[in-house]
Amino acid sequence: MNQFAKFLKLNLPLILFILLILSGCVKKEEPTDWLAKVDNRFITTHEFRMFYELDPNFGIDSTGLPALNAELHKMIDQVLALNKAEREGLVNDPAIDRAFRWEEKQAMLRALYREIISGQIKITEDDLRDAYMKKNEMVHVRHLFTKDRATAEKWYENLKKRKTDFKKLAAQAFKDTTLAKNGGDLGWIKLSELDDDFVNGLDTLRPGQISHPVKTRWGYHIIQMINRKRPAIIRESDFEKQRPALKKWIRRQRGLELSKAFIKKTIGKLNPQPDAKLFLKLWIVLNKDQNLETMKLPQPVVLDNYYLDRIENALRNDLDKPFIRFKGGSVSLKEFLDGMRQAPTSHRPRFKTPKELSLQIATWFRDEFLFQKAKKRKLDRDPQVKQEVRRFKEQEIYYYYVNQIVDTITTPEAVESFFKNKEFSVLKDRPELAHFQTLQEWKWDRAEKLLHESLRKQPLKIEVRIDSLKNENKRIDWKGRIRFFMIRKPS
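The structure corresponding to this sequence follows.
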């Protein structure tokens, strides 16, 4: 079996699917459980909870009700940004419209998995109790963090070959923080307080072992297990408190397993294969070397419009030929290239080797095949799909406006000196700079404040239920969140 077919049995992108699919439920158009209202747009408690739980910066600089209130108003700003874009016609821009249509496709795929998989998940009382023992296991770990995969891989190789030690690398990874001084040691911590991807990375480690680079939503970690111990008994009051989170965690794990089985059943039996001759022709357009086993591009290539045009022009006589063959049909080269054009550039294949390109073509075929199933089920009408697409639009438009403002910001000389030359004396007059690691972070914060002022000038009625926000604040384990952020603080 070649690499293309093998990849179809893997499930690399499905974790994000499961996070969104299995943790949510469909809300009514006019819910009673809402925290804020912008004209006729309701922000529900559930929707807001998903928003702040997925925000990697929530709870770092402040905690409690002020942090929660600031986060809610950031979400309100995103609602206002889309309203502004719709009035100005920005949503009709071809690139933005393409991104919106792409997200609708992804939301429909998530809905397909939800329909097929979610109903199959059964959770017993024994399952919950087993999960409690698992999630309340205590581990003593230390880790290294970087946003760059290549750096993480280099650290791992150096540790493996004993060219350096953990403490020296921790000083590089965390600079002047406590973690830099203690070698990245997180001390004893519950698995339930850690990110799921982080937990998966240390799950099989025995005391003393070091993990390969572990990817989380923030970057890459190298984890060393120092020791671990499971709870001796179940504390019933604590178990009942954790019951909802345990159900959510089990659904994610079971959903991932069922997704793998679903992929194998629906795609594996089709046995899709790239046409060897046409694939070689396509590769030669990118690189003259004809040896698929050894060839490698000097740097990663993205199938942007330049390369798509180049392939189309060079292989004009082959456009209608089968590029991917599967049981019962085929996909022509033209259909594949057209499919690539419909995807935002950021979601197109990025590769250096034929194998990497082949694997990403496999992902495209899988999603395209399942998307046709989703269309037949008319999942574009699914209420949760509509809700997810609207949230995507609000976020993307908001960040579009922020980026526009960032490009216009001029940096005061004192601020430039602080970040460039580490002139800490500047903090006397500008103490707020201590909250930022880079000049770009400062500019981004400044741009968000300016956008906030601009958006709030719109004649839209905004209503916030403070009492409901206070109740939401009470359910958050702020001490756990503070400790959780230690895991990935880069400096």
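Residues 408-457 form one domain.
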